[in-house]
Amino acid sequence: MRLSEKKIKTAYFCSRCGAQHAKWQGQCRECAAWNSLVEERVPTRARSLPRNVTATTTSIPDIVQESDTGYHSGIGEFDRVLGGQLLCGMTVLLGGEPGIGKSTLLLQVAEAYSRQSVKVLYVTGEESLPQIKRRAKRLGVFGEKIDVINETSLETILAVIENGRSGIVLVDSIQTVSSGQFDSPPGTVAQVREAANALISLSKAQGFALFLVGHVTKEGLVAGPKVLEHMVDTVVYFEGDTSHLYRILRATKNRFGSVAEIGLFEMNSSGLTEVTNASSLFLSDTTAAGTVVAGLCEGDRALMIDVQALVTSANYGTPQRVASGIDNKKLALLLAILEKRCDYPMAANDVFVSVAGGLRLSEPALDLPALVAIVSSLVNKPVDRRVLVVGEVGLSGEVRGVTNIDRRAGEAAKLGFTTMVLPQSNAAQVVGREIRLVGVNDIQSALDVVF
Description:
Blueprint lengths: L9 E5 L5 E2 L15 E5 L34 H7 L8 E6 L5 H13 L5 E5 L4 H11 L6 E5 L3 H11 L3 E5 L16 H18 L2 E6 L12 H5 L2 E7 L5 E9 L7 E7 L2 E4 L3 H5 L8 E8 L2 E13 L7 E4 L3 H15 L6 E7 L11 H13 L7 E3 L2 E2 L5 E2 L4 H10 L4 E5 L12 E5 L2 H8 L1
Parallel strand pairs: 4-8, 4-9, 5-6, 5-7, 7-8, 13-17, 15-16, 17-20, 20-21
Antiparallel strand pairs: 1-2, 1-3, 9-10, 10-11, 11-12, 13-14, 14-16, 18-19
């Protein structure tokens, strides 16, 4: 049988985690996802196994450390999320929903780096060059040191990168890049894995920084194999609601910095602009019942935000529990604690809780402000706008301490808050702040202070 007549070898890959299966089955055995297996061709490569291979080892003190000097874009919110700077050879995966502003952010970042005398290569597979030109004109991007290419062939992109010697390469997006050694269309598991692996390997070898834009699934995760997130150094998500003006840049993985930092941007007609005073963005002047100011901490940044609640009589047998910005199960847990420990009739009421500004938060310090806002709406008594509430709530109704309490108190005093309701265990940790501190041990004590 001739080589051309040999049967093409195929396998089934999970579109969510990238696991390989010999035959099709309804559920992936690795990530338990249903109906996620797709058939793809397995590339055959002639590999000769070397014999008598020897490798040398190096002790940690003898390892030659690379220079810590990297690139600063000058966009403070962006640099903060990356860990302060973009290191040479660093690979960043940027994910976000369609239309959120990923391409806009990348083009503005490319302009910022080019102004620092860094040569940038912008590879686009989704937009034509005239479209890039039109968007650059709208954003005020001159792009004198930005080379742009519209290409989806992996082999061509690699050749351009090797010949160009750019300091930073941006690929928008990795799902559009395909290799000629696969018969499958772009965006499949094999294509995304091969393209990302080749680009990341070249980035490490030549020392240029690499940005990869990734599409997201309906669950909000980067599409393609899960191994893609393990291959890169940093995974960043661009979050927000397209109906709101502001966007949040959040890192979920960072080998060179903290994942607790966030960057805040505001979307306008001229592109994205930094938000320096974040608390003023999430605070309103409303004095209606059901609104409470909470003090949160995202990395080194303290944020004062509005937590709003609406409690109404249930029209159906099962009351509704709707949460925006916090987990629905968390809301149900807080309502159970409130009814059990403080005897408020929550089982007969619909409860709606929202974090102002479209933020999605999971910090424990949001527990007590949410409960105070719910009770405020239930009894129809407004909370003084100069009162800040902070605290985690336990199952027995106790108020537990939170971290970075001094930083929260400092931001509150700067914004003119006069009183801060906080856990009793945190009261002694705040020193030298011009704000009245009221320590509480349980929910009922907090409610008595606020009302």
